[in-house]
């Protein structure tokens, strides 16, 4: 399966901060993670850890931990060059697979965004 070259150009460290809300639609997650909705649906089939909440009409609602996991999967596949199988194996070794380093980078980005907002 080939990936969209546009989506692979953005590094995980350059992704926008995750807003502090409880649920996100597939469209919002697609924007936050720079991954197309059909790719997100495919990853749900390939990665057992990725299980968005489904509500009325089978609509998917993702939570913060899902977005962090999607960003980790994206980094493994697009930046580190893992195959789906390799990424699945790597995530299986680390539980949810969201590394402390990625969490720290994300917190730092969010803090920098907040600092810019209050400095205006």
TrEMBL record:
InterPro entries: DNA-bd_dom_put_sf, MerR-type_HTH_dom, MerR_fam. GO terms for molecular function: DNA binding; DNA-binding transcription factor activity. Residues 23-93 form the HTH merR-type domain. Keywords: DNA-binding. The keyword DNA-binding applies. It comes from the Bacteria. PANTHER family: BLL5018 PROTEIN, REDOX-CYCLING DRUG-SENSING TRANSCRIPTIONAL ACTIVATOR SOXR. This is MerR family transcriptional regulator.
């Amino acid at each position: 399966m080939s990936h969209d070259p546009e989506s692979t150009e953005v590094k995980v460290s350059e992704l926008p901060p995750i807003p502090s809300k409880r649920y996100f639609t597939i469209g919002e997650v697609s924007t936050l993670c720079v991954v197309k909705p059909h790719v997100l649906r495919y990853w749900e089939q390939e990665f057992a850890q990725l299980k968005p909440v489904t509500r009325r009409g089978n609509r998917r609602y993702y939570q913060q931990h899902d977005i962090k996991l999607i960003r980790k999967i994206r980094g493994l596949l697009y930046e580190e060059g893992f195959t789906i199988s390799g990424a699945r194996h790597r995530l299986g070794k680390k539980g949810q697979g969201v590394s402390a380093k990625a969490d720290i980078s994300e917190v730092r980005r969010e803090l920098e965004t907040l600092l810019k907002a209050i400095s205006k």
